[in-house]
Amino acid sequence: MSQVFQIPTQKDRTAVNMAQMATSIAVQRPYFAFDSLYKVSGEWDIWGDFKPEQPLGSELGPLATAEAGRHLAILGSCAAALAQVEGERVYYLASRAHWDLRYNPMRYGRTPLMTARAKIVERSRKRVLARTELLIEGQLYAELSVDYQVLSEKTFQKLFSNHLVPTTSSSVSSPYAEAFPLSVLTLSEQEITAESVGFSAARCEGHFPDYPTWPVAVVMYGLSQVMSRLLDHKVGRVTPFRLLHVTLAADELVSADKQLLFSACFSSVSTDGKLCDVVCNAAYGDRVIATTQAKVAIE
């Protein structure tokens, strides 16, 4: 039986101003989707509650791993931002991440409200490493460590001036509540390639406002979609799966009006066909911008 942690009660919580925090990390709603942020006495720098919204597809669990990565990476950057000067805006670019599934709940239905916590374990002027955890009913569901490149507002604006597109938020609903379309280009029992279709700034609203780029978590969602299609094709049926471990490397931000090429291939499959290792890449032109290596359990 896994350890059960006490979820902080309202009287134990010190609220964090979410609007101020969102401005500090240059991430707004709907990409920033926490219902509450708060601090609690103890080893964790910051806690937050959120409601899952992204389609699961064939992935088993209370939420998609890519969506979990989105919320946890945001929370990790919030933990880092607690040390910022008031009014300062800093961009935290997730460059490396590692996901470990720790708890496999018997029921896979949606959980109405999920609790996450984060703390900074390493920090320098240009880099921050955060450890984050996701809890379900007090049990540790998963861990995610995130390595960020840290850019001041001035540096970010200089480096990404070609991405500048002044925008105003107009969405009533979140674009993250639906999957974005992919067109399969090649498919075999060992590998797949697919391209995004009509991806645009509206698909990444709230992520670095005025600089619409593909969020790393959305790239990860595209990679999980092509991986799922590859599993279905190899097994010959719709194939439920769980992502046990994932290592992600993201090397480049691409403008949201560009279409990405996603690919996945098997690097190993167990003799009983229940476990496999899958390598996935996202590319723009001839440049690979993100890579994942995943240990996948097939149901």
Index terms:
13-stranded antiparallel sheet; 37% strand; 299 residues; alpha+beta
Task: Strand order, main sheet: write it out.
Answer: 1-2-3-5-6-7-4-10-13-12-11-9-8
Largest sheet features? 13 strands, antiparallel
Q: Report low-confidence residues grouped into runs of 5 or more.
A: none
From the 3D coordinates, which CATH architecture would you assign? Beta Barrel
Number of domains: 1
The DSSP helix count reads 4
Query: How are helices and strands ordered from N to C?
Result: EHEEHEEEEHEEHEEEE
Global morphology: globular
Q: Taking Cα atoms only, what radius of gyration do you get, to the nearest Å?
A: 19 Å
- Termini Cα gap: 22 Å
Write up this protein:
It contains four helices and 13 strands. The protein is of the alpha+beta class and about 300 residues long. The protein has one domain (about 10-155, about 165-299): Porin (Beta Barrel), CATH 2.40.160. Strands 1-2-3-5-6-7-4-10-13-12-11-9-8 form a 13-stranded antiparallel β-sheet. β6 (about 125-135) and β7 (about 140-150) form a beta hairpin.
Topology of this structure?
Elements: E1 14-15, H1 18-24, E2 34-39, E3 46-50, H2 65-81, E4 90-101, E5 114-123, E6 127-136, E7 139-152, H3 153-159, E8 182-187, E9 191-196, H4 216-235, E10 241-250, E11 261-269, E12 275-284, E13 287-298
Antiparallel strand pairs: 1-2, 2-3, 3-5, 4-7, 4-10, 5-6, 6-7, 8-9, 9-11, 10-13, 11-12, 12-13
Helix pairs in contact: 2-4
